[in-house]
Amino acid sequence: MTPQTDQAEPIRQHALEIFQAALKAVDPVEAIFRYLQLTDDVLQVGEHRFALKDYNRILVVGAGKAGAPMARALEELLGDRIADGVIVVKEGHGLPLAHVRIHEASHPVPDERGIKGAEEILALVKDAGERDLVLCLMSGGGSALLVAPADGVTLEDKQAVTRLLLACGADIHEINSIRKHLSRAKGGGLARFAYPATVVSLILSDVIGDDLNVIASGPAVPDTSTFDDSRQILDKYDIWNQVPPSVRSRIERGLKGEIEDTPKAGDAVFKRCYSKLVGTNIQALKAAESKADKLGYGTLILSSTVEGEAREVAKVLTAIAREVRDSGNPVTAPACILCGGETTVTIRGDGKGGRNQELALAAALAIAGLENIVVLAGGTDGNDGPTDAAGAIVDGHTLARARTEGLDPFDYLSRNDSYHFFQPLEDLVITGPTRTNVMDVYMVLIG
Fold it and tell me: Domain with 417 in it: what CATH number?
């Protein structure tokens, strides 16, 4: 960060400390040990107990940014009891493991490495029998990493659809609804392959509302979406005629009943499937709240389910900041306003950035010239869009500093080029890969 000479300096530092506290609370290793215990050869997962003597093999599979540390925690807990395992993680998110093979692959647009890892996973669970226990590790990014295209759909087709959905402003529920209907693994597909084995899914949530059938596109849980939903979403964003012909053909065949839909609640494949949420956005916000309290701020958590256009959310958050400053509502200063979720960006330019950097840039415009207000927006995975930054931090002097660098904030915002706006200001929040993902954390500190 560029050193600040105004009163915002200690507040900016506090914002970074609060963000780090949020990240620590959703560390994947701590999450596994919080919810799993092994006592007398009985594995307890939340309220469920599994006597390991009843199983011939324990297999570990999974996909997502948090997969490697989650698998490492399982290896520490279960050791040589793990017979085999395969997980797919985002490139750069791997770790050395003893019993579980790791594939690193591309995210958010899938690639051949993701296909290779997914095929190994499906082959492993397809070979599982009634006396096998499959531990399935799912976290944010799993949808892009667990790539098993449905018959007639190519990797290139899935890449094209992914790019269209990311660019049009579709939310993660909508994106994953379509992904599930173009895949053999998503939307309960992995449960189909694994049946009749026992499947226990351990899940870090990166979606609004912690909907299990949306996180990583729900490979081992009943799917609530349909082919009809896929068609409606593509129509909603006016991209039906832009997706590849194979995708349109598959959805149309599904609508006619020529292709079986994803498995729903009550399907026999879920008879031995169990799921446990081990990390959520609200856990991160609660930890941030605790840290802010210790730093002397009156703290208020607004919501862990924030969504909408990033620049519009920025307007709401900064309006609350001005209200705190002017009237002491809804909390008196010094105050920390926290919320979490996942915003979207409708891409209008060809710049580089992400939803958190865009939110921060819009916030900088809204608080320009105001003293003692700091806004931080950061992704808990450490990667905001296709960048190496988690997000950005701004205050009332950000725009003045930008002008001295010859940077026009309106121009950068119009081109969705927030990364190159914040980079010369050294206002990017860079954590490196956190190997976790429970969506984003937004905070406003009022001194």
Answer: 3.40.1480.10
